[in-house]
Amino acid sequence: MFTGIVEELGEVTAVENLGDASRFRLRGPIVTEDAKHGDSIAVNGVCLTVVETGDGEFTADVMAETLKRSSLGALETGSRVNLERPTAVGARLGGHIVQGHVDGTGTVVERTPSENWEIVKISLPAPLARYVVEKGSITVDGVSLTVVDAGIDHFTISLIPTTLALTTLGIKQPGDTVNLEVDVIAKYVERLLGTQAEESAK
Question: How far apart are the C-alpha atoms of 29 and 51, rounded to whole Å?
């Protein structure tokens, strides 16, 4: 489990095509300082398993399904990525519960800068719209954020200077694709209420 508090802005140093998968080598001295084979690291919000580590880098294999369903398929050597290690038991939950399981992708529609923050509008796939509410939580490229406005086909977020400087959201431009993970609690509530409704109808 993750919290959506990005620890490090890393970089893709190599991409190897494995046919039905890809192997990424990523630089992240902070997240690799205690990482070992089999550990998990979230890359732009996608939970990946560490294959090897060394010299501040780690490798991870990404299956075709993940490449297709997330923005990881567009990564190339030199791409910047958000990195986060799983939260430790007993640690503070600074963001919200994040699984690292991408629900879909959105597209940056527009950016509106102001003196101390920036409003970013992101398109929202129709199947995910019901899980996104004003002042609720959403994960964008692995960053835990609060929804400012929730529309039928979009939502907006407000980015503070720290987020702009220390994550990929500071450099994403209109037209760029981002990974989205909605609040898992909303999905569980929907499933439970649906089950109750079905049982009541019997």
Answer: 16
